[in-house]
Amino acid sequence: MHDSGVTANATRPPAPPAVWVVGAFAFCVLGGWTFGALLQVWRFVPGFLLTELLFFAAPALVVLWRARRCRPGPDPDFRVPGGVDAVRAGLLGVLTAGLAVVAGVAVRRGWDLPLSGRGPEWLLILALALPAPLAEELMFRPVVQRTLASYWRPAAAVPATAVLFGLIHGSFLRFPETFLLGFLNGVVYLKSGNYWPCVVFHAAANLAGPALWSLASRAPALFHPLTGLALAVPVLVLTWSWPPPPEAQRWNWRAHLRWALFGSNAPPPGAPAGKRPAVVWGIGVAAMAVLVGWVTAGELKAARAAREAAAGGPEVRQRDEWVLDTNAVISVRSRLEFERWPPRSEVWVLALAYPEATLHGVTLAGEVFEPRPVGRGTYELRWPRPLPPPGTVEVYWEVPLAALEEPERGYRVRLQALVPVHAYALRLVLAEGCGYVFDRAPERPFDTIFSTSGQRPPRRDFGTCGLGLRRADAAPPTAPPAP
User: What pTM value is reported for the model?
Assistant: First the structure.
């Protein structure tokens, strides 16, 4: 059986010199992430175009020019593609963009991040449609992927190049999207051996992506993981049905499967021995991953801060336990549970529900603090620096039973948190011998009076609620006679 993949690889032009490729890619990363970022801060669209030209296209052209000087002759990677190949690449780009958006929606749901519903301006769409695919594919296909394929099996070069393509976009939040796009475009290059279908694929994906993200923000249910599975079917069919290279003299399904999956299952002829290419690639990926991780941590921090600002701060829950003692005084332990400390936590103002209440102390991480009274029922608390890890703050205070409202109707209590909270719960415990019982269940010594959660934005006041108390020696209320 004739192995068309090997034949195709044998007719491919030699890869550019490895030292030049490593230098060009390093220049692309360092220049794009420094001067390119500054250019885009200055003016986003012109800066984006200059970044693509200076740090993607220019170093790639230098490497290709150097390779042509070393080995003159036409480069088949830049031959004019057939119309069918262009249409197939464009359709595959649109379908892959759908897969990428499904992956992006899943990542943002996992991190509880908002979906951006605003599409880019038309100048940026034009830049994404033509200059970006031309420049980026010039670097990643005839330069990076072709060089990696000269050291490893061609199929190994596809995911290796896709990892670099995903990392160079500078965010782990977008990595599943960019890796998918880079991987499937690498398959297009593996199958076609041509730069231009990769440009068509990239342009189609860049045009479809903003429109799909806008739809995802309005109808996120459409981008369920099952949608990704449904899109994967035509993607696999299109890649499988890509026509074999013309050099194939004998073709059966086993040969087609081998070529469809690997391009060639044999190492390229004359590949250098040793582990140096893998070591260089690994060091580069590790360095990029560290920088991308640092940038992603900043992204997550900024997104969380924006979400908390919109919601009114980090998640805070208050759980109160009120104990009615024998001397008709309610002793209260309020537990404030913080998901994270507020950004400004030097001074907190604790407002008790009743002016007659007295605050006895506050504990945090086993340390007791003495708040300073600043008004009736209001106290100022200054925290030390640095704060311990976030957790529970316990506040101890008491209020006389006589301060509650409507004693003749079983007492009503004001539901007021010490600080604005997202969840509030109140539990009342009757001490033995306190002289009171619950109307609804006289045999029970405790009852949950109130509980709520999910307050957006956070609240301090929750109205009033009846305790349903009566004296233990009083007769239970009788229902009015039926008419």
Answer: 0.65
Question: How far apart are the two ends of the chain, measured CA to CA in Å?
Answer: 100
Q: CA–CA separation, 280 vs 119, rounded Å?
A: 38
Does the structure show a pLDDT above 60 at 6?
Answer: no
Nearest 5°: CA angle at 124, between 118 and 128? 110
Q: For the chain, give the number of residues.
A: 483
**Residue range 200-242, pLDDT digits in tens:** 999 999 999 988 998 888 888 889 899 999 999 999 888 888 8
Where residue 377 falls (left for φ over 0; alpha for ψ -120 to 50; beta otherwise) is left
User: Number of folded domains in the chain?
Assistant: 2
Question: pLDDT for 267-278, tens place per residue?
Answer: 455 555 557 888
Tell me the residue range of the domain where 172 lies. Answer: 4-267+275-310
Q: Check whether residue 449 and residue 362 sit in a common domain.
A: yes
Q: What DSSP character marks residue 111?
A: T
Do residues 247 and 285 both lie within one domain? Answer: yes
Domain presence at residue 172: yes
Higher pLDDT, 120 or 343: 120
**Structure-token pair, residue 373:** 């009274």
**299/365 same-domain check:** no
36's CB contacts (< 8 A; 6+ apart) are 47, 50, 51, 54, 55
Task: Give the β-pairing of 347-351 and 378-382.
Answer: antiparallel
118 with 33, same domain: the answer is yes
